[in-house]
Structures are given as structure tokens and as C-alpha cells.
Amino acid sequence: MSEEQRAEKFLELFNKGKEFTEELLRENQRLRYRLAALETESVAPEEVQRLREQISQLTEENRRIQQRFREVEEENKDFANRYIEIEEQNNNLANLYVASYQLHSTLDFREVIQIVQEIIINLVGAEAFAILLLDEKTNELKAIAYEGEDVMPGVDAISTRLGEGVLGTVAKTGESYYVNQDVEGGAITIDKPLAAVPLKIKEHVIGLIVIYKLLQQKDSFSAVDYELFSLLAAHAATAIFSSKLYSQSERKLNTIQSFLDLLTTTS
């Protein structure tokens, strides 16, 4: 039986229970009126006692049905909540799949960076963030893309060395960093973001995704955000690294081709 069919059966049972309860209440009221009328008339005590017993039975039956009705109502609420959770999980899985597919849909470095930015904005819900890449020759982390410089001044010019501060430590250890504002409090600064996620290929860190501010309609990170961070840590890192290598090799090939063309022309 599908989740939708189960929901319909719960609703049907709910409505039937409600109708039956209302019917019992009407019958109970009718018998009480009848008993009150008989008590003012000359009626055998046995008849009055029989009606009293019948009313008592109906009252007990009504109590039992109302109890079951409340139980079904609670089950229905629990089912509705679980249905919403399943819907959210399905949407999250679909978003994760789309994000993963998009990351590997191109080898153009600029397009890959743009896709990562769109994922951070649309799926994570970040308003201010930066994408940093590590220069292995100088061991410096520099921002290559950013968003929200109006709410986080300096996000466009982040530069730090490997191992220095929060960002440098995340890049060196490969361990993600998150701030729980409800517990830790404090102001968010360039070196103390909401989150810093390393972009890793296996254990090799090539850069960071740094989140400084979430969109107004989003209070905190959700469970799916951490799944997205894990995806970005691996898939985005691979996509960025591959596209960067491709761009470099393409430039080299173009340079070689230009040199060959020049030799051919002069000869």
C-alpha cells in the first residue's frame, strides 16, 4: 500500500469515527430525555433500570470510541509528519543528484566555479561566502569567487597562509569548521565564519568554501546542508581541480599550436 493510500484510509477511518461518535451522542441524549420523561410517569422500575443500563453502556461505548478516535488522530498526525519528512528527504536527494551532475557537466573552469556558487546560494542558502583556492607554491589561500561583499566587507580579498587562523587551520587539517551561534555566540568575522569546508581530493586539500551569512529566511544549517558540504568537499574539489588542469593544458596546447603555426609560416 502506498503512502498516499494509507493517508486516505486514515482519513476515511477518521471521518467514520467522527460520524459514529456523533450518532452515539444523539442516541445517548434521546435516551436521557426518555428516562427523564419516564421518571415523571408511572413506569415500572425495571423499565427505568433497563434504560439506565442502556445509557451507561452507550456512555462507556462513546468513551471507548473517543479514546480510539484520539489514538487514530495521533497516528494520523504522526503519519503526516513522517510523510512530510519523506517528501523533504526525496527533494534533498534530488537536489544532491542534480548538484553532483551539474558539477561534472563541464570542464570549463569558470562554469564549474559558477555552478559551485549557484549550489551554495540556492541549495545551502548562503548570502555571503567565498571560494578559496590554495596556491601550493606559496601556501597561500586566496578568494577566486565570492558573494555578499556588502554584508561581509573584505570577502572579496581574503588571503591567508596555510596553517594560520581558522581558515588556514581548516586547509591544513582538512577538518570542516562550523560555528554554533546559539552556544558560542560572538561576531562573525573574515577569519571566524559560520562554516569553512575544505575542498579535498582524497586527503589533499585544494581550497575552501567559506560561509559567512545565510539568507534571511534561513536560521541555521539543516541536515541536508551537511550532506551538501560533504558533496562539495569531494565532487566540487574534483570538478574544480579537473577543470583547472584542463584549462592549463588547453592554454599550453594553444601556445604550442601558435608556435607551430609561426614556424610553419616563417618556413
What's the gist of this structure?
With 267 residues, the chain is of the alpha+beta class. The protein has two domains: 3-100; 111-253, Beta-Lactamase, CATH 3.30.450.40.
Attribute tags:
about 270 residues; Beta-Lactamase; 2 domains; 6-stranded antiparallel sheet
How would you sum up this structure, described in words?
- The chain has helices at residues 3-39, 45-103, 109-124, 165-173, 181-184, 223-266; strands spanning 126-135, 140-147, 159-161, 177-178, 195-201, 204-214.
- By secondary structure, the chain is α+β, with helices and mostly antiparallel strands.
- The protein starts with a helix and ends with a helix.
- It has six helices and six strands.
- The longest helix is centred in the first third of the chain and has 59 residues, at 45-103.
- Strands 3-2-1-6-5-4 form a six-stranded antiparallel beta sheet, with helices on both faces.
- Helix 1 runs antiparallel to helix 2 and helix 2 packs parallel to helix 6 (223-266).
- The model has no long low-confidence stretch (mean pLDDT 79).
- It folds into two domains: 3-100; 111-253, Beta-Lactamase, CATH 3.30.450.
Give the C-alpha Rg: 34 Å
Provide the CATH superfamily of the largest domain: GAF domain
What helical percentage do the residues reach? 55-70%
Spatially, the strands of the biggest sheet line up as 3-2-1-6-5-4
Secondary-structure map with pairings?
Elements: H1 3-39, H2 45-103, H3 109-124, E1 126-135, E2 140-147, E3 159-161, H4 165-173, E4 177-178, H5 181-184, E5 195-201, E6 204-214, H6 223-266
Antiparallel strand pairs: 1-2, 1-6, 2-3, 4-5, 5-6
Helix pairs in contact: 1-2, 2-3, 2-6, 3-6
